[in-house]
Amino acid sequence: MELYLNTTSPYARVVRICAIEKQLDDVKLIWVDPWADDNALLTANPNGKIPVLVTDRGETLSESLLIASYLDGLSPTLSLLGAPNYTDVFALSGLSQGLTDAAFMTVINRKHFGKESDSTVLGVRRQNAIVRCLQRLEDRVSTDVMQSDINLGQIVTGVALSYIDFRLPELQWGESQPLLADWLTRFSERASVKETAFT
């Protein structure tokens, strides 16, 4: 299998952590710059987005949560989907994916249009979404899905929070969400999380 990724994509990091946790050692990492119209990436995924997984059968999968679900089925080691009771895992994954999307688009818009893009209608919506998602996660820290063995929801949550710390450190979200900050500190001790740290 081939996984197209870079070191700063939160979406790619989710997939990479999943592959490590599932002990899938046959995943070949192909490092690309999605902004450079890399020919190999565009051949694998015409929309130029990462991550992209090319399976051993030559099938191309995109979108991080779909790739993660596929990887989960390749190894009996530790179900990341929480089967058969997967609803809570999917709910947490969706919530934290929304947080990732809002943070990522904030970073991209600042890169291309300056920080004043935060003041546009869409920029304000993104900022408000970040605040709401962080508070919802703070309220859920003590739930079973956050405190159980590692699962996809926890991975997406941990990556989203780490991405905000990496790209939007001025938010200092830990001051308002101390329980969530403590959770992230514990989660970040996992070997898979350390190995995939943003650079």
Automatic annotation (TrEMBL):
Cellular component GO terms held in the UniProt record: cytoplasm
Record InterPro entries: Glutathione-S-Trfase_C_sf, Glutathione_S-Trfase_N, GST_Omega/HSP26, Thioredoxin-like_sf
Signal peptide start and end residues: none
Top-level taxon in the UniProt lineage: Bacteria
PROSITE patterns associated with the record: GST_NTER
Domain GST N-terminal: 1-79
UniProt protein name: GST N-terminal domain-containing protein
